[in-house]
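Bench notes, afternoon.
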Amino acid sequence: MFKKLAASPVMIAVILALALLLWLLSGDNYRAKQQSPAEQQPPEQQLALVETRWSDAGPYQLTRVAQGQVLPWRSVSIKSQQAGTIVELLTRQGDRVQQGQKLLRQSDEGRSEVLAQARANLTLRQNELASARTLSTSQFVSETELTRLQSELARAEAELESARLALAQIEPVAPFNGVIDRRYVEVGDMVQVGTELLQLVQIDKLKVTAQIPQQHIAALQPGQSVKLRLLDGRQLSGELSFISYAADIATRSFYIEVTVANPELLRIAGGSATVEVQLEPVLAHLVSPALLSLDSSGKLGLSVVDDQQQVVFYPVQIITADNNGARVTGLPERAQIITQGAGFVKPGDKVQVAEAKP
């Protein structure tokens, strides 16, 4: 009996502990029913790290290059206009001549006598018509006779002019200031109408011709500066003076002419030259070609980081490329270009930036 009573407090304590535990559990279960569980926060996402380099656009002189032909400003083959014999050479090959200067002389072949006869005939016809007009006032000469005499006078005037021209043509003159580049006859040579006598060229000013592809012609305008590089390394400056309005059907290219001053009379006419047409300067970035990539639509461009630390893809156009890099347009004037890590990000991604080491 005494042992049973002694065990009672222990049992009572156990019972109380179990009751307390049940009460605590029932409270947690009640709160779980009344309150929704706290929203779980996802782990913070790690931003991609890219390496960038600041690039500032600078002015770049655009050019269009073509192979051209250097020609005299003017070139003419002086040919015989009358048959005869060369009796005197008034110039030599290489001589500089002035417009209107006589170049050689052919035999007269009776042309002076023909001219004198034409003058005398003209005087006769003039006197006949004057006398007839005097008589016509007294009605001794009919109107028909006056008309006939006027016709004879007109014929005499035409014959005189023809005789003068024939005599002048045996002494051909220079049609412009130039240089005798070739002489094809000697004293004593017999010539016919159309025989080539001399070649006269004007080279104090030159004309360079070239063909420009149709895709480049829109950038050209008359008046643009042009640089010429000759085969021996010499350089000349000129001006674009003409652009054809229609392309060549076979090549789809446009004919252009460049005017070049040649005061020193350099012997370059007939040769070839590289033509560089100077276009308007543009702002361009110098970048490594390795940084260029294609977007999903196949456009060539560069990835940059904007002010919000987000990736932006800019389509660009390559205007030139050499050993120093590629010059491109299409970027902002100042751009933070991604130099490493562009392949692991896409436009719109926010990134961490580390500047490339110089």
